[in-house]
């Protein structure tokens, strides 16, 4: 049971998953059918910033987590020095 102190407490996705009795979005037929307006708007907002969350989530679902982390580190590294920019912390 989530408490108000938990960061997921007010997350509309977590609440929706709980109402449907599923534990992760991959189990949701609306998510897989691309008919969930909540997820599609969320993904669309990130696509405007050239971040394909559907691709990222598919990598995680397929167990390609190391590849996901490597891609995020490459994508969010400074192009001049190679150090992390800090932007990846929003996705990692």
Give the distance, in angstroms, between the N- and C-terminal Cα atoms.
24 Å
Tally of DSSP helical segments: 5
Average pLDDT, to the nearest integer? 78
Q: Work out the strand percent.
A: under 5%
Which word captures the global form? globular
Total strand count, please?
0
As a percent range, the share of helical residues equals: 40-55%
The succession of helices and strands, N to C, reads: HHHHH
Low-confidence stretches: 88-92
For the report, how would you describe the main beta sheet? Answer: none
Which structural category do the helix and sheet elements fall into?
A: mainly alpha
Quickly count the domains: 2
Gyration radius (Cα, Å) is: 15 Å
General description of the model:
There is one protein chain. The protein has helices spanning 12-20, 29-32, 37-47, 53-61, 65-75. Mean pLDDT is 78; it is low at 88-92. With 92 residues, it is mainly alpha-helical. It has two domains: 12-61, no CATH class; 64-92, no CATH class. The two termini are 24 Å apart. The chain contains five helices and no strands.
Task: Set down the secondary structure blueprint.
Layout: H1 12-20, H2 29-32, H3 37-47, H4 53-61, H5 65-75
Concise structural overview:
With 92 residues, this protein is mainly α. It contains five helices and no strands.
Q: Which descriptors apply to this entry?
A:
92 residues; mainly alpha; 2 domains
């Amino acid at each position: 049971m989530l408490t108000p102190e938990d960061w997921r407490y007010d997350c509309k996705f977590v609440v929706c998953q709980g109402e449907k009795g599923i534990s992760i979005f991959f189990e949701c037929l609306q998510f897989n059918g691309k008919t969930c307006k909540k997820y599609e708007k969320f993904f669309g907002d990130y696509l405007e910033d050239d971040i394909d969350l559907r691709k990222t989530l598919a990598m995680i679902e397929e167990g390609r987590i190391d590849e996901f982390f490597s891609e995020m580190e490459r994508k969010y590294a400074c192009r001049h020095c190679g150090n992390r920019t800090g932007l990846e912390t929003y996705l990692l």
